[in-house]
């Protein structure tokens, strides 16, 4: 069975696929994987879709596509979510908007350079993959940490020896953080350096 690239694009648009996998296309069309991959590559050559990792594609015709939608796909099947400076800037805790999209996953850390942006996905033990929600903005859905969890994620990573992340700057909008939730969430981490840091900063 074959499906012309134009017909495949029609089905992708009809089903409102935004970030999707080759397996999604197999289910949608009944194509064999080699035929589906060939049709997807033809669409990519025409600049209608783009591959962001092996077997994962983005529909470039979506007008309101949010790069953060890719996060849950990049390290699948492990859970991932937006955190660190990306989430903190979104909530107004930090003013500077990073040009890199920061996220956490229970998978091994890995950077991605894609048509949707640059992603730095860091590792957290699975016991710390919590404190995030699925946020909807228009048609886009993406997982993002609560502001308190994003701040504590930053402390946790920065306080680990040989970390690629630095401690947060002294000036930030602490009023955007719920102090009670910070204390509760920090206790759940059970990470002494984090508790000591918060105590020293009177947070």
Please tell me about this protein's structure:
- With 203 residues, the protein is α+β, with helices and mostly antiparallel strands.
- The protein folds into two domains: 55 residues, Arc Repressor Mutant, subunit A, CATH 1.10.10; 134 residues, no CATH class.
- Helix content is 37%, strand content 22%.
- It contains eight helices and nine strands.
- A four-stranded mixed sheet has the order 4-5-7-6.
- Helix 5 packs antiparallel against helix 6.
- The chain is elongated.
- 31% of the residues are buried.
Produce a short descriptive summary.
The chain is an alpha+beta fold and 203 residues long. The chain has helices spanning 5-14, 22-29, 33-45, 71-74, 84-90, 147-159, 179-189, 192-200; strands at residues 19-21, 49-53, 56-59, 80-82, 100-105, 110-114, 117-123, 132-137, 140-145. The chain folds into two domains: 5-59, Arc Repressor Mutant, subunit A, CATH 1.10.10; 67-200, no CATH class.
């Amino acid at each position: 069975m074959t499906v012309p690239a134009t017909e495949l694009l029609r089905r992708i648009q009809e089903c409102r696929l935004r970030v999707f996998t080759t397996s999604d296309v197999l289910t949608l069309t009944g194509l064999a994987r080699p035929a589906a991959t060939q049709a997807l590559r033809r669409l990519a050559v025409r600049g209608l879709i783009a591959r962001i990792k092996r077997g994962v594609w983005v529909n470039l015709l979506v007008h309101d596509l949010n790069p953060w939608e890719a996060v849950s796909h990049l390290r699948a099947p492990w859970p991932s979510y937006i955190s660190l400076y990306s989430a903190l800037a979104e909530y107004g805790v930090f003013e500077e908007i990073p040009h890199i999209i920061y996220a956490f996953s229970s998978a091994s850390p890995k950077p991605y350079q894609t048509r949707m942006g640059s992603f730095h996905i860091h590792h957290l033990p699975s016991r710390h993959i919590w404190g995030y929600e699925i946020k909807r903005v228009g048609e886009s859905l993406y997982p993002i940490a609560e502001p308190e969890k994003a701040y504590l994620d930053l402390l946790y990573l920065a306080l680990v020896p040989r970390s690629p992340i630095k401690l947060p700057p002294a000036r930030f909008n602490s009023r955007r953080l719920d102090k009670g939730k910070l204390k509760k969430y920090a206790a759940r981490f059970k990470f002494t350096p984090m508790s000591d840091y918060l105590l020293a900063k009177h947070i």
